[in-house]
């Protein structure tokens, strides 16, 4: 802990997991996209009455990034050609932004911004995925 702030991997927080819950109108397409194309393995699944289905996919480590409006505008200038961030945007760290972005687009995602290097030394791209999710695909360069 530094200056009252827990550092990465310190495990001192009260929250044990961050889970993003998304309603997907075309459930099967969204499941195929995120599980099979993005590569998030199925961790748990549950079925209920009236065709209720849920699949919990493993996304590795989760963080919550809070940004004020000025930072979001700055990110939009850096990461896009005039695009705007959704109020909630999902960012996925990968090993090869360009290759993963191409795979996602080939699988039906809509390209919003091609891969580009940011001032904070990452390679970022944006796509619109099934279920309407705006994804930033990023690769740390350092």
Describe the structure.
This is VOC domain-containing protein. It comes from Agromyces marinus. Residues 16-140 form the VOC domain. It holds the Pfam family Glyoxalase_6. With 142 residues, the chain is α+β, with helices and mostly antiparallel strands. It has a domain at 69-140: Roll (2,3-Dihydroxybiphenyl 1,2-Dioxygenase, domain 1). Helix content is 23%, strand content 26%. The chain is built from three helices and six strands. The chain has helices spanning 27-38, 69-79, 97-106, and strands at residues 42-47, 53-57, 90-93, 110-117, 122-128, 134-140. It has a four-stranded mixed sheet, covered by helices on one side. A two-stranded antiparallel sheet has the order 1-2. The longest helix is centred in the N-terminal third of the chain and has 12 residues, at 27-38. The two termini are 23 Å apart. The mean pLDDT is 92.
SSE-based structural type:
alpha+beta
Q: Biggest β-sheet: count, sense, barrel?
A: 4 strands, mixed
Widest beta sheet: strand line-up: 3-6-5-4
Spatial gap, N to C terminus: 23 Å
**Oligomer classification:** single chain
Question: Under the CATH scheme, which architecture of the domain at 69-140 would be assigned?
Answer: Roll
Query: What Rg, in angstroms, do the CA atoms define?
Result: 16 Å
CATH superfamily of the domain at 69-140: 2,3-Dihydroxybiphenyl 1,2-Dioxygenase, domain 1
Q: Count of DSSP E strands?
A: 6
H/E topology pattern: HEEHEHEEE
């Amino acid at each position: 802990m530094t200056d009252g702030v827990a550092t990465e991997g310190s495990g001192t927080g009260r929250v044990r997991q961050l889970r993003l819950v998304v309603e997907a109108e075309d459930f099967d397409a969204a499941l195929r996209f995120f599980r099979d194309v993005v590569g998030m393995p199925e961790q748990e699944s549950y079925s209920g009455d009236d065709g209720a289905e849920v699949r919990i996919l493993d996304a590795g480590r989760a963080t919550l990034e809070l940004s004020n409006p000025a930072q979001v505008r700055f990110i939009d200038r850096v990461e896009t050609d005039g695009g705007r961030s959704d109020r909630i945007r999902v960012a996925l760290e990968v090993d090869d932004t360009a290759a993963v972005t191409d795979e996602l687009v080939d699988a039906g995602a809509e390209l919003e911004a091609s891969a580009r290097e940011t001032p904070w030394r990452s390679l970022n791209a944006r796509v619109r995925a099934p279920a309407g999710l705006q994804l930033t695909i990023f690769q740390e360069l350092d």
